[in-house]
Fold this sequence. Notes:
Keywords (chains A, B): DNA-binding, Transcription, Transcription regulation
Number of strands of chain A: 0
Oligomer: homodimer
InterPro entries (chains A, B): DesT_TetR_C (IPR054129), Homeodomain-like_sf (IPR009057), HTH-type_TetR-like_transc_reg (IPR050109), HTH_TetR (IPR001647)
Protein name (chains A, B): TetR/AcrR family transcriptional regulator
Strand content of chain A: under 5%
Number of domains of chain A: 2
Largest interface: A-B, 54 and 54 residues
DNA-binding region (chains A, B): 37-56
Organism (chains A, B): Amycolatopsis minnesotensis
Amino acid sequence: xxxEVQRARRLPRAVRxxxxxDAAVQVFSRYGYxxxxxxxxxEVAGVSKPMIYTYLGSKEDLFAKCxxxxxxxxxxxxxxxxKPELPPDMQLWHGLxxxxxxxxxxxxxxxxLHRQALTVxxxxxxxxxxxxTRAIELVAALVVNAGARKxxxxxxxxxxxxxxxxxxxxxxxxxxxxxxxxxxxxxxxASWLMNLVWLGFNDLVEGDVWKPTx
Amino acid sequence: xxxEVQRARRLPRAVRxxxxxDAAVQVFSRYGYxxxxxxxxxEVAGVSKPMIYTYLGSKEDLFAKCxxxxxxxxxxxxxxxxKPELPPDMQLWHGLxxxxxxxxxxxxxxxxLHRQALTVxxxxxxxxxxxxTRAIELVAALVVNAGARKxxxxxxxxxxxxxxxxxxxxxxxxxxxxxxxxxxxxxxxASWLMNLVWLGFNDLVEGDVWKPTx
DNA sequence: CGCGTAGGCTACGCGCCAGTAGGTTACGCG
DNA sequence: CGCGTAACCTACTGGCGCGTAGCCTACGCG
Lengths: 214, 214
C-alpha cells in the first residue's frame, strides 16, 4: 500500500490567508471581479470555500483586501525608489522607474489595480480613486514646486493638478503598452516620459508657450 | 370620465431601438455591464423586456451595439473637427478640442466607452482595444511624420508608438479629470496637452534630450 | 369587414454562484 | 489521556437575473 501524498495540511491561519489572497489576485486579474468565482479562487488556493469566508469574509471583502494589499505594495515600491534629497526631475525619474519595475514584476497586481478595480461600482471604487488622486497630488506637488521656483504661477496655460492628471494617465497608459513589449526596460520607459513631459514643462517654465497658429 | 393619458404606443421599430439604445447607454454607464440589469434598462426605456430581445438580442449583443454606436459617434466627432491640410501640431490641436467637446457633451458615451467597455472579458474587449489602437496609430502617424521631417529616426530616446500610447493615455486621463471640472473649456484642456507634449516633442526633435544627472 | 402582421405585454423557468449548516480530524495542554 | 479548540471539508439553499413561452391588440389592405 503506497502511502498517499499528503495535501498540505493543518497550516496556520496566516499562511492560508496569504495563499488565498495570492490566488484571489491571480483569478481577479484574469477574469475581473464579477466573472471570477469563489469556487475557482478556492480551487487555485488549494483550500475549500468556507475557509475563505471564515478567514476573509465576503467576496467584496476579499476583493477589497486584495486591492489594499497590492496598492500598498505599489506605493511602497515607488517610495522606496525615490530619493527626496534629489532635484524634482530626478525624483520623478526614479519614481517612474520604480513604477515600471513594479508593473513588470507584478503584472497581476497592476492589472487588478488598474483594470479591474473600477468595475465594482460604489463604495471602494472610491477608495481606488482616492489612491490615484493621492498619486496625482504627489506628482502635482513636485510639478508645482518646480514651477514655483521659476515664478510660474496661476496662468491660464498652467494647472498643476490638470497637468499631473495628464502625466499620471500617460504613465499608466505607457505601463499597459509596456506589458505587450517586455523587452523595453524600465529606464527607457521612464526616459520617454521625462522627454515628453519634463522638457515640455521646462519650456513652459521658461515662458515658451505653444499657441495655435492662424 | 377623464380620458387616460396614453403611454406612448405603437411606435415604429426604428424609434424603439433608439430609445432602448439610449436607455442602455445610460444604465450601462451608471452601473457597468455586470451590475446593470435588463429589467432596469427596459424600465428606463419605457418598454417591456421581450422587446429588447426581439429587437436587439442578448445582453451582450445590446452592449456591443451600444459600444459600436458610441465609438462611431466619437470617431466621427473627431474626424469632423480635424483639418488634414493643416500642419501636424494644428491637426493634433483640433483633434484634441473635438475630443474634449465630445466628452463634455456626451459624458455617458465616454464613460461607457472608457470605463465599462474593458470590464467584459473576451470577444469584444478586443474590439475596444482595437479602436483605441487605431487612435494610437493615428496619433503615431502624426508624430512620426513630424519627427521624420526633422530627421529623427530610430533612436533609443524615441518610439512613435510608445510616445503615442503615452499621449493617448494623457488625453484620456485629462478627460476624466475634466468631468469633475466642467468650467475648464476644451480649448484650455487641449492647450495644456499641447504645451506638455508638443513642446517636449519639439525639443526632442531638436536633439535636446533629457538625461539623468549623476 | 375579415385577416395577416407588426407592436407589445405578463409571467415564468432555470442556471449559476455567493454564502452557510453541520460535521470531522488533528493538535496542544493540563 | 481526555477535552477544548482551531483547521478543514462536503453538501446544500436561496435568490437574482437572463432569457422565453404564450397571449393580446391595433392597424393596413383587399
